[in-house]
Design goal:
This protein has helices at residues 40-51, 69-81, 111-133, 137-167, 192-196, 200-257, 262-277, 280-289, 330-334, 357-361, 370-373, 377-389, 426-435, 437-442, 457-474, 481-495, 505-521, 529-541, 545-556, and strands at 59-62, 89-93, 103-107, 170-175, 178-185, 188-189, 308-312, 322-325, 336-337, 340-342, 345-347, 353-354, 365-369, 391-392, 414-415, 419-424, 445-448, 452-454, 500-502, 570-579, 582-591. The chain is α+β, with helices and mostly antiparallel strands and 601 residues long. A 5-stranded parallel sheet has the order 8-13-16-1-17. Strands 3-2-7 form a 3-stranded antiparallel sheet, with helices on one face.
C-alpha cells in the first residue's frame, strides 16, 4: 500500500515564530546580549588555550567568514586581559663594550618614559655644567697650582744643571732649539773659533768636562720627561676629579631612583666612566653651538651614548596587551630599523629601532588573520621561529639594499612570553595541519565557532537579544516585534533548515542597517516587518542580474521549459546557483534516453 501523499503549504516550508512573550515590545524593551552564548564549545577551547602557559599551546580559531568570530574573540580576550598583570616597559641603551649590540633593559610599566626624561635632563646638565665649571676661577686656580708646581720643579732641575755646568767651566743657556753648552775660558764663554785656537791640553780638558756634563744633561732631560709625564697625569687627575664631582650627584640621584634595576645601575656606571674619559666632547659641542667650529672639519658628538630607545611603553595599559595586527608583514611582526641615507650609503643605530607586533603583544596576546599572514612567507616563518624559540630577534631580510648598510646593529634578543591567536577557516586549518609540520606543534588548540545553531527557546532569546544589541548600539530607530520575527525567519532561511539559525553577525547587521535606512526614507518612527522585507529584497536585487537574464531567456523561448503536461523521458529540475552570498534557483529540463542493446547470437 502506497503511503498517503501530504500536500505542503507555504507556511509549512518556513520558520516563522509567534514570540508571544515579546508581544507589544520593541528592541528598546529587550535586554541586549552578545553572540557568545552560541559559541560555548569555541569559548571553552579558547579558555583552555589561554590558561595553559606551556610551549606550543597557541590557538587557532576556526569558523566561517562573517560569523563575528574575530570581533567576539577580540572582545573576549580583551576582557580576560584586563585582569592580567601589565608587562614591563622595554628599552635599549648603548653598549659600551660592543656598540653594535645595544643592551636591553626592562622597567616597570610607565618608568621607561620617566627614565628617558631623566637621561635627557642629565645630558643637558652635563652639556651646561662641565664646560662652565671646568672654566671657572676655582678650577683655573687648581690648574695653575699644578702648573706652578711643575714649573718650580723644572726650574729647580735647571738650576742644579746650571750649577753643575758652572763647576765644569761651562755656561748653560736655553734657546728655541733647546739647551746649549758653551765652554768658559778666563770667565767668559767662547765660540767655536776661539775654541779652535786653544792649545791641545785645554781642548782635552774642555772635552773631558763636556763629556761629564752630557751625562748630567741626559739625566736632566730624562727627569724633564718624567716631570712632564707627572704633570700631565696630575692635570688629567685634576680634570677627571673635577668631572667626577660634577656628575656624581645627578648620577647618584638616578641610581637611587632606579637602584632596584641592576641593568640601570650598570648602565649609569658606564655613563660615569665614559663621561670622565670623554669630557672634551662637551667643549667641542659647546663650541659647535656657539659657531666656533666648522662641522665639516670637526667631528661633532651626537651623545647617542646617553640616548635611550623606549621600544615598548606600557604606561597606558590596564592589563595584558591585546594586539590585533591587520598588516602582518615581516617588519610589522618582528620589528625593523629605520635608515638614513648619506652618499648612497645607509646608516642606522639602536635609537632607530622600531618595535613589531610581537614586541607590543609581549606578555599578552597577538591576534592575526591566517590568510593575511600566509600571504607573507617571511612573516609567517619569522612568527613561527619567534614563538618556537620564545625569543624576538630583530633582523633585516636579505634585501637588495643590504650591501649599502654601513653598520648593522645586532640588538639583544627579547624573551618572548605570548599567546598567539590565529583566526581562519576550516580549509586553511586543515591545509596547514597537513602541509606545515611546525603548525601542529605551535598551534595545539583549535577553537571551533559554529555557523548554525538549533532553533529552541534559548537560542531564540539569545538571537533576539543580539538583534536588540545591534539596534540599540548602532541604529537610530527601534525594531518592533514583526521586524524581529522577520529577522529570525531570515536567519532560518540563510541556514536552509527550519530547525536551525545561521548565526552570522554580518548577515543580520547588514539587513538591520538597510531596514533602518528604508524606514528613515519613508519617515517611519519604528522599523516594522515590511521595512525588513524591503531591505532583503533590495539587497537581493543588487545581485540578481544573472537570474533576471535567465528568466528573460525563458520568457523569450530561448530556453524551453514546459510547465504543463507530461512527456516520456523528460522532467523539470531546479538548479541552485551561488553568486557571492546570494543563491537562487533556476529551472532546468532534464531528459533521459533508453538505449536498446542487442545481444550477440
Amino acid at each position: 500500500m502506497k503511503p498517503a501523499l501530504k500536500e505542503l503549504k507555504p507556511k509549512d516550508l518556513r520558520y516563522y515564530p509567534e514570540l508571544a512573550k515579546y508581544k507589544g515590545k520593541t528592541t528598546k524593551d529587550i535586554k541586549p546580549v552578545s553572540l557568545f552564548s552560541f559559541q560555548k564549545r569555541g569559548f571553552e577551547a579558547l579558555d583552555f588555550g589561554m590558561d595553559v602557559r606551556k610551549k606550543g599551546f597557541n590557538i587557532y580559531v576556526a569558523g566561517d567568514p562573517g560569523s563575528g568570530k574575530t570581533s567576539n574573540v577580540k572582545k573576549y580576550i580583551e576582557d580576560v586581559a584586563k585582569h592580567l598583570p601589565v608587562p614591563d616597559d622595554l628599552l635599549y641603551v648603548y653598549n659600551f663594550e660592543d656598540y653594535d649590540s645595544p643592551n636591553m633593559l626592562f622597567m616597570k610599566a610607565g618608568s621607561g618614559e620617566k627614565f628617558i626624561k631623566d637621561m635627557d635632563e642629565l645630558l643637558d646638565g652635563f652639556i651646561e655644567q662641565i664646560p662652565r665649571q671646568m672654566e671657572s676661577e676655582n678650577f683655573e686656580s687648581l690648574r695653575a697650582e699644578v702648573a706652578q708646581t711643575y714649573r718650580d720643579r723644572m726650574q729647580k732641575s735647571y738650576n742644579e744643571l746650571e750649577a753643575e755646568a758652572a763647576k765644569l767651566d761651562f755656561a748653560l743657556s736655553s734657546t728655541e732649539n733647546g739647551l746649549v753648552l758653551n765652554p768658559i775660558v778666563d770667565g767668559k764663554p767662547i765660540n767655536k773659533e776661539e775654541y779652535e785656537s786653544l792649545d791641545e791640553s785645554n781642548k782635552e780638558k774642555i772635552r773631558k768636562n763636556e763629556s761629564a756634563l752630557q751625562e748630567k744633561l741626559i739625566a736632566y732631560f730624562h727627569q724633564d720627561r718624567k716631570n712632564e709625564k707627572e704633570y700631565k697625569e696630575k692635570m688629567s687627575d685634576l680634570q677627571r676629579t673635577t668631572v667626577k664631582k660634577i656628575i656624581s650627584e645627578p648620577l647618584n640621584d638616578l641610581a637611587k631612583k632606579y637602584g632596584k634595576n641592576e641593568g640601570v645601575r650598570e648602565y649609569l656606571d658606564s655613563i660615569a666612566e665614559f663621561t670622565i674619559n670623554n669630557f672634551s666632547d662637551f667643549f667641542t659641542y659647546r663650541d659647535f653651538l656657539e659657531g666656533k667650529v666648522d662641522p665639516m672639519k670637526t667631528l661633532i658628538p651626537d651623545f647617542k651614548e646617553y640616548k635611550v630607545n623606549l621600544l615598548i611603553n606600557n604606561k597606558d595599559l590596564k592589563g595584558a596587551p591585546v594586539i590585533y595586527e591587520t598588516n602582518p608583514t615581516f617588519q610589522n611582526i618582528i620589528g625593523y630599523f629605520e635608515y638614513e641615507e648619506n652618499h648612497n650609503s645607509l646608516f642606522t643605530d639602536f635609537t632607530r629601532l622600531k618595535p613589531g607586533a610581537l614586541h607590543r603583544a609581549n606578555g599578552g596576546f597577538l591576534i592575526i588573520q591566517a590568510d593575511d599572514i600566509l600571504k607573507n612567507y617571511y612573516a609567517w616563518t619569522a612568527l613561527k621561529r619567534a614563538v618556537r624559540n620564545r625569543l624576538i630577534k630583530i633582523e633585516d631580510m636579505d634585501a637588495d639594499f643590504k650591501y649599502r648598510v654601513i653598520s648593522a646593529p645586532n640588538p639583544e634578543a627579547v624573551p618572548l612570553e605570548i599567546k598567539v591567536v590565529l583566526i581562519g577557516d576550516e580549509e586553511i586549518y586543515h591545509l596547514l595541519y597537513e602541509r606545515d609540520p611546525e603548525f601542529r606543534r605551535i598551534f595545539k588548540v583549535k577553537a571551533d565557532f559554529e555557523s548554525v545553531v538549533d532553533v529552541n527557546a534559548s537560542t531564540t532569546d539569545t538571537l533576539i537579544g543580539f538583534i536588540s544589541r545591534i539596534v540599540n548600539d548602532d541604529c537610530e530607530l527601534p525594531f518592533d516585534l514583526s521586524a524581529i520575527r522577520r529577522l529570525l525567519f531570515y536567519s532560518s532561511r540563510r541556514a536552509e533548515d527550519q530547525t536551525k539559525y545561521r548565526v552570522h553577525a554580518s548577515d543580520i547587521v547588514e539587513i538591520i542597517v538597510e531596514a533602518v535606512y528604508w524606514a528613515q526614507h519613508k519617515n517611519k518612527k519604528v522599523v516594522s516587518e515590511d521595512m525588513v522585507i524591503t531591505a532583503i529584497e533590495s539587497r537581493e536585487k543588487r545581485y540578481d542580474r544573472f537570474r533576471e537574464h535567465y528568466f528573460e531567456s525563458i520568457k523569450k523561448g530561448t530556453i524551453l521549459i514546459d510547465v504543463k503536461g507530461a512527456k516520456v523521458g523528460q522532467i523539470n529540475g531546479l538548479a541552485v546557483y551561488q553568486i557571492g552570498d546570494f543563491s537562487f534557483g533556476i529551472p532546468s529540463r532534464i531528459t533521459a534516453k533508453a538505449l536498446q542493446v542487442r545481444e550477440r547470437s
